[in-house]
Amino acid sequence: MFRFLLIIACLVALSGCVAMPSVTSAPATDAPRPRVAESPVPPPAPPVAGKPGSANPAFIGERAEQAYQTGRWDVAEGYYLQLTRLKPGDAEPWFQLGNLYAEQGRLDSAQRAYQESLRRRDDAKTLHNLGLVQVKLGIGALRESQKRLPPDDPARQETREFLQTLLETASP
What we know:
Blueprint: H1 2-15, H2 57-69, H3 73-86, H4 92-104, H5 107-120, H6 124-148, H7 154-170
């Protein structure tokens, strides 16, 4: 029974997350969107007079989303990190960083970012994405352990069978 539940959990992880909504008016691209859970995003704040973006979180958030939408992940990461400093109690920049890192396959960083987001706001979608990242990390650890275990070790055979079942169940 435990194996069955674990297989179901892994299948959910392998299927990805839910799409994140766009909060800017940037044109849609033909590239597929990352599949991460949506977060409740308030409408953008009106622009503030003065230097654009100097310390305006709304402006920086718009720039971050724009960079994310256009695949300039290093730029988006910089903006989201800046938002974490400008709004230290806000969970949203950490959630977006988690999505960004997960999209790039930086699973350890994604896990840390989602945990930081959860420290600031208890949110089911953040938990969802954290769970998916942790399952993917677990699958990676199982694959690595299978490579490292001696051929005659029973754990190696069990790991191989478990991973094979996961992959067969995930295939249509």
